[in-house]
Amino acid sequence: MSSISHSFALCHVPSRDSLTKPSYSLPQTVKLVHIPSSWKSRFNILCGALSTRNADAFAATTPTGGSLSNARDKVLLSPELADGRSGSSVVSAMASTVMEPNSAVHEEFTQGLGILKFLEGKTYFVTGATGLLAKAFVEKILRVAPTTRKIFLLVKANGEAEAMKRIKNEIVECELFSQLREMHGEKYRDFIMSKLVPVVGNMCEPELAISDTELAARMADEVDVIVHSAANTSFDERYDVSINMNTQGTLRMLGFAMKCKKLQLYLHVSTGYVNGRRRGVLREKPFYMGQRIAEEMVTFSGTQESFPPPKLDVHAEIELASEMARTLAADKDADLKMRELGSARAKMFGWQDTYAFTKAMAEMIITDYKGQIPVAIVRPSIIESSYQEPFPGWIQGNRMIDPLILYYGKGVLPGQFTDPQAPADIVPVDIVVNTMVGAMAKHGNRPDLELNVYHASSSVINPINFQEIFEFACDYFTSSPLKDSAGQEVKVEAMKYFGSMENFSACIEDAIAERMGLSGLGASSDPKRFHKLQIVHRRKVDSLIRLAKAYEAYTFYQAWFQNENTQKLMKEMSTEELKTFMVDLKSIDWKNYFMNIHIPGLRRHVLKERM
């Protein structure tokens, strides 16, 4: 390990046992009471450790070189699979025994969860408001619950005018809200602007950088539900940037939640991939402070390690990231070294990358600091375009699996560094939103102190693998091909799969050289043109190799996310709620989804083609 990774041993933080936690009273909703100064100080120290650093100051770059965790080295089965069955066989058995929503058990819940009643007149505080998921959440709430009082949206901006401009451009005018626009006609803008309240702030700074103290006090008085969706999702982000946003940002949100006088629920959006390098069928269990997946892997694999995995102290990791950022401030390679530090720390403790690790530590923070705040955690897997609502195929941005599909359709990616049978755990964004709303109503209506986790995932209930996705993509692009820069239709062939990076690289180099005309072009014929084409060729090849390395932990993934809690939620919903808040992933025909919904959606919303 590099000297950078060794430096964590120099960090020291007080014992968690020395902290005094606040007391709460919990009648029907959470009520704020006095917080001891010792705990406030602790919050200030932890939340402000990186206050001088702005997350946006570090530009996200394409993944740097260096191998990520290899999911093929060991397949670790969770305790549920200890009987020796393979993960896929257990998944098949589980999928076949899932109870349909109209079963006898469902008849016990004819009254449902009371979702619409719960939503009446509520006030929300939402982070990540201009991102895919939070934006879809806001649209759904305003469409099904027009009596919503206010939705406070945390927006990073230079002043109120810029924040309002972002809300208008990125939300009010967004095509996602077209159905809401049709519902309200000429009154649409008045309606939506009467509900949305931009809050100038920053997740990466103490007190969320909300400088408007009157607005902050108003929010503390009025907010019923907090939805924390903001995150830095780059797999290989600088460690200080990722931990500040994902881990400390969650701590700051909890600090604000403690000020809310009538808070009924804190809904935290995590990711199924916080499960790290675990293998097998994984249940919806919360993380406890200091939990190490590396330790579980040693325990369940039965191997004898010379050096046991080190203890995980989340607070020490925060201090380490901050200290190393200061130490490397003048280093021209600071970005690369801070990315390598995050990757090294993640793998040391059993996670595949910095993103999953810092999100897992965020869950540990929640477990340790939530006190008596009612909390629900929703862990989506790979969020993709909408299945039904508000219309099929809406998506924002070029998301995880989408670059692979589009590069393939453009003829640039004829092969992939992937286990074709690995689960590609896809979930449409509208189903994630409905899961969030269902969990919100269930635990907001009946607040309890148990930490409830929901996997919004398909790998157990309706599994699909990478080979099936690219077979659908092949069928689609064969019948509806993309066009190249010369206007010629691109012909695709069946995707090739490689378990070796060396073989994958060779395939990509040859394919791109052929497409660029380098194969038959000699340096002697036109030296300048040949040299320029070589540079472009190398850049394209290196970009695809970096992408394959960044995705390696996911394209060779050997775990399936059990969603028992989500299934129970579905069984408690009434027939009408099941229609309005569709969460039944088992009903999705994946071929239809990819060929008629998702890939056409990518062409319209990502490639900006006119359909």
UniProtKB/TrEMBL annotation:
Residues 126-436 form the Thioester reductase (TE) domain. Residues 539-609 form the Fatty acyl-CoA reductase C-terminal domain. One of its GO terms (molecular function) is alcohol-forming very long-chain fatty acyl-CoA reductase activity. Pfam families: NAD_binding_4 (PF07993), Sterile (PF03015). One of its GO terms (biological process) is suberin biosynthetic process. Keywords: Lipid biosynthesis, Lipid metabolism, NADP, Oxidoreductase. Its EC number is 1.2.1.84. It catalyses: a long-chain fatty acyl-CoA + 2 NADPH + 2 H(+) = a long-chain primary fatty alcohol + 2 NADP(+) + CoA. Belongs to the fatty acyl-CoA reductase family. PANTHER family: FATTY ACYL-COA REDUCTASE CG8306-RELATED, MALE STERILITY PROTEIN 2-RELATED. Catalyzes the reduction of fatty acyl-CoA to fatty alcohols. This is Fatty acyl-CoA reductase.
